[in-house]
Amino acid sequence: MTGDSHYILREATPDELEQTRRGHFSSWAGGLSVEQYIGREIHIANNVSAEHGGVKCWILTSSVEPCRVLCSCETMGKPAFVLSVKDGKEQAREVTSYIIGSVFTPEQNRRNGYASIMLDLLARRLAMECEFDALYSDLGKKFYADKGWKPHPSNHISLPPAASIVKPSGVKLLEDRDLPLLCNRDVDSIQSRYHETRLQPNVDACIVYLPKYHVIRWHHSREEYLSKITSGKIPIIKGAISPSGERWCIWNRNFNTLDPSLKKLWILRMVDMEGDNDMVEEEKVDEIMALLEAAQEQAWLWGMTEVLLWSPSKRVVKAASKILGKQVEVVEREMDSICSLRWNGDKGQDANVIWDLNEKFAWC
């Protein structure tokens, strides 16, 4: 391996993009054929909003062999909101951030440090374009932390699938047509809260990825593509909303033809508005409980093995515990899907940054 100055990070050409996808097919296809896998990647890439930069495939090459792909990764632009000091005062503002994924080195190129070089070059590039970027590590907490992506709390709860004997009173199941207005309401609430918030003395920034409709739609496009292949059907039900209209959740299903145990229903976003002050706490918990039970039933109907929800609030934990009849376990992940963030603003890696609403919808 030659010095780092000989390495080049650039966007892949269409031919190189297909080459990289064929390369990591065996690692991430989950039982799909090569053509089905490439078709999935094209399908979900076409469902990413170009407004925030879309999806880009990056490759590492060298000046010695400019056409040889040493390793690759992808970035997806996401809408986000940040509260930090800018121009001498606290400001809350919408920004574009990037999620890094599909970091892959072909077998014959491994153990040469290529991925580290690629990530270093990519970090420098993204630092010129965004205030922060993130990734979800499946290599534990240390590998990416050493490269500047600090691990943040990464926890979840799990519930088993269950056939509903009694329908939760007043709960309405959500379809895709219901989601745009709910997503807009959710985003408006988040932005209003950030405009009214002040940073704590020891906090340099608060960030949140925004659960806009097109962000949610990306997950559902992936779900629908895989569902059509595995069952010939497309799931219509995308979530549920409580009788008060102040709480709702949006989910998707992960279909895996290779390993049925990986078929899971993910709650992408759990919304808990606080506009119903006439309700007592127990009523609010019961509404969330009904939403979780609706998710359990959908998991049962579609043959999922469990319902998963990231970063549960105290109220969600109470509701889940009530369903189980015992205290639900909040699992802290140590090796997979470690939420990791790189701050490119003032103080750099020394900044204390809070990642708010760290839920599954931001993942890619």
UniProtKB/TrEMBL annotation:
Residues 156-364 form the LYC1 C-terminal domain. This is LYC1 C-terminal domain-containing protein. Gene3D superfamilies: 3.40.630.30. InterPro entries: Acyl_CoA_acyltransferase (IPR016181), GNAT_LYC1-like (IPR055100), LAT (IPR053013). It comes from the Eukaryota.
